[in-house]
Amino acid sequence: IGYYSDGFDFPYVKERAKINKVRLELGYNLAEIDNKYEQASMYGVSHIDILKFIRRTMSTSLKTNSFKLDEVANELLGEKKVDIDINDLPKAWDNDNNKKLNEFIKYNLQDTKLTYDLFFKIYSNLLEMVNITGLIPGDVCRMGYSQFVEWHIIRQSRVQNEVVLRKPRHHELEQRMSTRIKGAFVFEPEAGIYDDIIVFDFRSLYPSIITSHNLSLGAYHKEPRSSVNVNPEDEDMWFSEKPGFLSGILKEIIKLRTKYKKELKKDSKNLFLKAKVEALKILANSFYGYTIFYGSRWYSLESGETTTSFSRHYIQDVIAKAEKSGFKVIYSDTDSIFLILKGKTQKDAHDFVDKINSKLPEMMELEYEEHYPKGLFVSMKEGKGGAKKRYALCREDGSLKITGFESVRGNTSPIAKEVQEKILDLILHKKEEKEAFDYVKKIIQDLKDKKVENDKLIIITRISKPINQYDSIGPQVVVAKKMMKQGIHIRAGSRVKYIIKEGSGIIRDKAELPEELKQGDYDANYYIENQVIPAVERILELCGYDKDQLLGKGKQTGLGNFF
């Protein structure tokens, strides 16, 4: 059991053993570690890399945006790693600093404990995936969504006496890879701050469409027949009403999940029931992607196109009916609809949902997700429209739901994230727009006065490939090379930390390791112009403040003022 053991631990141990001419015999019959296909395997031993399983199957249910051991353990276990700078290890080792080395021993022991505890935390989920696919845990933990679906279908093929289709040949792969399907409907938002937002969400939209309209490979007909489902945008696509093999499997998955969800309500602490519900959700939501995946055995372009066609049809139908009922729709994307009450009540919204559901096919359901007292959509970089998937909503308890902003993205310094989250809270929860503006101005002044702690300015970037393969040299590459000169092992997947220091020259030449920089020796202008301002500018524009005002230059004057 390991955490990122495929990418770091075993490759590192193997390389060290090679340097020291030690034969690393860990597998059955003293077999050595094999590092093929980006996974460490040992003959006769099941090696489980927990990180891969969590990243691939639990990412949507985790609040943290990072998959570092520290962040994941904190959320799932309520425990954290020992706080220590790993870059101090070579120096401590070379100088026989026993006190420091003992701290690293505690660090390693805690990492081991966290990994061990995490395994048993996710064990029931892993076991359920093993039950679904019929494969061993070592394979399941590294599987993608399409593989989960395929192996489940293969198992069902044997049960239902269906032929397992062959894998696509090279020319078929090339043809499929060049094919594109029209995506979901998006109702673009208008930038602004809104009150009384209601969000509706189609429950498992694509799976329910596939099962309701029998959209699967075996049910597709190239010519019209009696009793067929027709693509709402293309009348040359017909699907038999007789249940197809794949749509039938998916229907059973949805029914099973509904059954286990009801049981879970009666026994909410049952980990195995929770695991079943989560595993079946992943499986159901992956079916659509599998049918249009170029490597799929049961590939069906027609099924995929008809699925998205029906999704656009249902979303647009709900939007039209919502506006006819007196609601104002402000945003919609794929399976969600955002509207404002516009003088109506939450009961009116619930009644509207009930009316819609009464006309939908049996497997489909529009759900009332939540009421948000206040929310905002920011503008695009150019133009007046709102940016897709860039919004923040304030829940009734005052907590925020943030989508697409710097606070939930990587490569942003803590100070930028902190400032952005603070002003969103001030604007949406406390409704203090002027206070939000004043707060940002204070942070800008603190940066100029070197009052901000260096720790809040650290930028963390992941190295995506071997250092010698970078054509464009960015700050992270420069810092990675410095770390390598210090004897620190850097490979694809490694994270590097740096601060942009004060001085002249281009940004990459000013990138410095945090521990080699004195407090306050940072480039204040860089952090103001490239971190803080970009994080808040379009939010504060909604409140009537622009960049020049933040920088103390007065409000920007438009050309129209000169006429």
Overall description:
This protein is an alpha+beta fold. The protein folds into three domains: 5-143, Nucleotidyltransferase, domain 5 (2-Layer Sandwich); 186-394, B family DNA polymerase, palm domain (Palm domain of DNA polymerase, Alpha-Beta Complex), CATH 3.90.1600; 415-553, Orthogonal Bundle (Topoisomerase I, Chain A, domain 4). Helix content is 45%, strand content 13%. The protein is built from 18 helices and 13 strands. The strands form three sheets. The chain has a seven-stranded antiparallel β-sheet. A hairpin with a 6-residue loop joins strand 8 (366-379) and strand 9 (386-394). It is globular. The chain starts with a helix and ends in a 13-residue tail after the last helix. Mean pLDDT is 88; it is low at 559-563.
